[in-house]
Design brief:
The complex is a heterodimer of chains A (about 400) and B (about 325). Chain A has about 400 residues and is of the alpha/beta class. Chain A is about 40% helix and about 20% strand. Chain A is built from twelve helices and 18 strands. In chain A, the strands form four sheets. In chain A, strands 3-2-4-5-7-6-15 form a seven-stranded mixed sheet, with helices on both faces. Chain A has a six-stranded mixed sheet with strand order 12-14-13-16-17-18, with helices on both faces. Chain B is of the alpha/beta class. Chain B has a single domain, classed as Thiamin diphosphate (ThDP)-binding fold, Pyr/PP domains (Rossmann fold), CATH 3.40.50.970. Helix content of chain B is about 40%, strand content about 15%. Chain B is built from 13 helices and eight strands. In chain B, strands 2-1-3-4-6-5-7-8 form an eight-stranded mixed sheet, sandwiched between helices. In chain B, helix 2 crosses helix 8 and helix 4 runs parallel beside helix 6. The two termini of chain B are about 25 Å apart. Classes of the chains: A alpha/beta (about 400), B alpha/beta (about 325). Chains A and B meet through strand 3, helix 3, helix 4 and strand 11 of A and strand 1, strand 2, helix 4 and helix 6 of B. Strand 11 of chain A pairs parallel with strand 2 of chain B.
């Protein structure tokens, strides 16, 4: 594969980048319901349909619950499907998230990460998708609109890979990405269509005992979504875990293949380390905060401070060994959580990272910063203060507060 | 629109292979299982079936077995109409890409809980969007799969485990939601009621529903011996009595134009042939408490409501 030199640079916000990527990926069915700040995605897609630019069947459902259900059923019928939601919409889908992964339907869904009510708030935090970590969906978090575009294209190939067959959430920060114009390099339609390819359908045991395509096909009937009790339910779930494990390698592989096509690469697809080779102190985050943090790290490095950043691109499947190796040189790390697990020991990312580092010897001090709930800004100064805290922890070899809340009235 | 009327003969129907087969684990005398078998006899070609959570889903697909000879999917309780929407959308997209030729029909099955109550939003949405599918409500008038709890489809006076007949409350105090009329109000091309006691009528109406372009809604009355408390041999008899007493009249509305089906025309043309509701109530122990002297007025209330609804229906059918 040769890298495409002629890439048109368009001024797109994150939502528009997502819609364009879905369009170019030759999606057969889009079923969606509007919710701020995802609306631009469905609006743009409706325009593509209205202007005859796509062959997609667009179903404007009466709820997110039905939107995901329709995608799941369409996917089970054998076609490529896409939807998008946020916040309350994702919460309403909660039941069907598990059904979608359980039915092994490779639906691709964009999430414009938005705070959950109450109080009602339309701005960015990660409460919505973090609450769905255990739903057997692959979760990829992007840093900017360019990555949103690139990741949607990759997502179809990952989800539909016959060794994976799991649905994917591609998560982008509300407003910081969804509504902010950026220059986005875009590939020609045909290049994307060829890269994504047609959906591969694996063979499974059919009603008559012979191998048939895994889809609802009157010529080769199969039963999807049966009742499985104590005798078979557990095996279904174990297979989902196996698929998740397969997904790690596939995500990396497709990240590589895509970089050959586009010239753009996001770490190894799972983690995106920044100045970590010799870092003493580091922060860990997902999403757009990584962009600001890179700027802070550059400043600290110019002053001779060995600071680094680990951006987690893939939260599910959790890239455990990559996290351990990326943080090998660190003495103190701060996990940045844009959501909270109330009553728990810090936020959800903190649980994951601290847990992964438990068996490493020697492991760094791992502290937690809850920040930016409901879209509160996370400016450079606040991020820099966290690195200063980490320096103190490194110098004193002691931690004062493991769980900290950034810039909140207390 | 003119619809042809099919003559499904017993000979022809016997020859047609079963698509909902024996071996499922429905109870003896199960009305909904009869309904499914009848409907699947009315299919006209390649068909995809989707089922809401409920008795018929649970009894027919206990992994790794299936009672279905057609592609079949279940996802959840409240969303069978959204399943049908997604399948139909996928078929449209595939047709556009010439991935198949001809027609593939989509049938959605749901019980009364999945239709009157938790599934009405998805059903209403799918009807408004105009997807081409047949929705079959098999109505056994309560949540039977979970152990006989009341639904919006449970009739007034019925004792269920969540509307028990007590010392002061005579079973369910509300009346059955007129779900088929609500579907007619959606201005979809075809809505009908049917009773498993009249198999030819069920088959004809199911076929009509499949043939029309757009959503079709078929409300099939399907008694449940466990939930209604009667002997398993009486299922068809009770299904017939519901029609003869006008508890469950049979009609269809083609493009919103109501007409009585022959079985109910008898009561319209010869009112003396209309049986009293008490004949129907007394066969079922879910209504047993209504025969206590203290609840006697409930029987009058039920008869009055049935007569009122029947009168309204006759007006809609221009037979008043």
């Amino acid at each position: 594969m040769t890298t495409v030199q002629q890439q048109e640079t368009l001024a797109l916000n994150g939502d528009e980048a997502v819609a364009l990527a879905a369009k170019q990926s030759d999606v057969d069915v889009v079923a969606a319901y509007p919710i701020t700040p995802q609306t631009i995605i469905v609006e743009r897609f409706s325009e593509y349909v209205a202007d005859g630019e796509v062959e997609t069947e667009f179903v404007c459902t009466e709820s997110e619950h039905s939107a995901l259900t329709a995608c799941l059923a369409a996917s089970a019928t054998g076609v490529r499907t896409f939807t998008a939601t946020a916040s309350a919409g994702l919460a309403l889908m909660h039941e069907i998230l598990y059904v979608t992964s359980g039915c092994r339907a490779p639906v691709v869904m964009a999430i414009t990460n938005r705070a959950l009510s109450a109080p009602i708030n339309i701005h960015c935090d990660h409460s919505d998708s973090m609450a769905e970590r255990d739903s057997s969906w692959i979760q990829l978090y992007v840093e900017n609109s360019q990555e949103a575009y690139d990741t949607i294209i990759q997502a179809f190939r990952i989800a539909e890979h016959t060794k994976v067959l799991l649905p994917i959430m591609v998560c982008l920060d509300a407003f910081f990405l969804s509504h902010t114009l950026e220059n986005v390099k875009t590939l020609p339609d045909k290049k994307v269509k060829d890269f994504v390819g047609t959906r591969q359908i694996p063979l499974v045991m059919g009603h008559e005992g012979k191998k048939v395509p895994f889809k609802l096909d009157p010529k080769n009937p199969i039963t999807i979504g049966p009742l499985a009790l104590q005798d078979y339910y557990f095996e279904h779930k174990r297979q989902q875990e196996e698929a998740m494990r397969n997904a790690s390698g596939i995500i990396s592989e497709i990240n590589d293949l895509y970089s050959q096509l586009s010239g753009r690469k996001y770490g190894n697809g799972l983690t995106d380390p920044y100045f970590l080779e010799d870092a003493d102190i580091a922060t860990i985050c997902v999403g757009s905060t990584a962009g600001t943090t890179k700027y802070v790290v550059d400043n600290l490095r110019s002053r001779g401070i060995k600071a680094g950043l680990l951006r987690l691109r893939t939260l599910r499947p959790l890239p455990t060994s990559d996290i351990v190796s990326a943080l090998a040189s660190t003495k103190a790390v701060a996990v940045m959580d844009r959501s909270h697990s109330f009553g728990g020991y810090g936020g959800p990312l903190f649980h994951e990272i601290r847990h992964v580092l438990y068996d490493t010897q020697p492991h760094p001090h791992v502290v937690n910063y809850i920040y930016g709930l409901g879209g509160r800004d996370m400016p450079q100064n606040d991020i820099q203060d966290i690195y200063i805290d980490l320096q103190k922890i490194q110098q004193n070899n002691a931690v004062e507060n493991y769980v900290n809340f950034v810039r909140v009235r207390e | 629109m003119t619809l042809p009327s099919w003559k499904f003969t017993a000979k022809e129907i016997v020859k047609k292979p079963e698509l909902f087969t024996s071996g499922h684990r429905a109870c003896a005398g199960c009305g909904p299982a009869i309904a499914l078998r009848q409907i699947m006899k009315a299919t006209r070609g390649p068909t995809i079936v989707t089922n809401a959570t409920g008795c018929m889903e649970v009894v027919s697909t206990i992994y790794p077995y299936t009672a279905w000879k057609v592609p079949w999917i279940h996802t959840a309780f409240e969303n069978v109409a959204a399943n049908a929407s997604g399948i139909e959308a996928a078929l449209k997209a595939m047709k556009r890409k010439e991935m198949y030729k001809g027609t593939i029909d989509v049938i959605a099955f749901a019980g009364d809980g999945g239709t009157f109550d938790i599934g009405i939003q998805a059903l209403s949405g799918a009807a408004e969007r105009g997807h081409d599918f047949l929705y079959v409500l098999y109505d056994n008038e309560a949540y039977m799969n979970t152990g006989i709890q009341r639904s919006g489809g449970t009739p007034h006076g019925a004792s269920t485990t969540t509307s028990p007949a007590g010392k002061v409350i005579p079973g369910k105090t509300q009346f059955k939601k007129p779900i088929a009329d609500i579907m007619v109000a959606h201005e979809i091309p075809y809505v009908a009621t049917a009773s498993i006691a009249y198999w030819q009528d069920v088959l004809m109406k199911a076929r009509k529903g499949l043939e029309v372009e757009g959503p079709a809604f078929l409300h099939v009355f399907a008694p449940c011996p466990r939930g209604w408390r009667y002997d398993t041999s009486k299922t068809v008899e009770i299904a017939r009595l519901a029609v003869e007493t006008c508890v469950f009249p049979l009609w269809e509305a083609v493009n919103g134009n109501y007409s009585l089906s022959p079985q109910s025309k008898i009561a319209a043309l010869k009112p003396d042939r209309k049986k009293p509701v008490i004949d129907y109530l007394k066969m079922q122990r879910r209504f047993r408490h209504l025969f206590n002297p203290s609840f006697e007025h409930e029987r009058i209330v039920i008869q009055e409501r049935i007569d009122k609804r029947w009168g309204k229906l006759l007006k809609k059918c221009d037979m008043a």
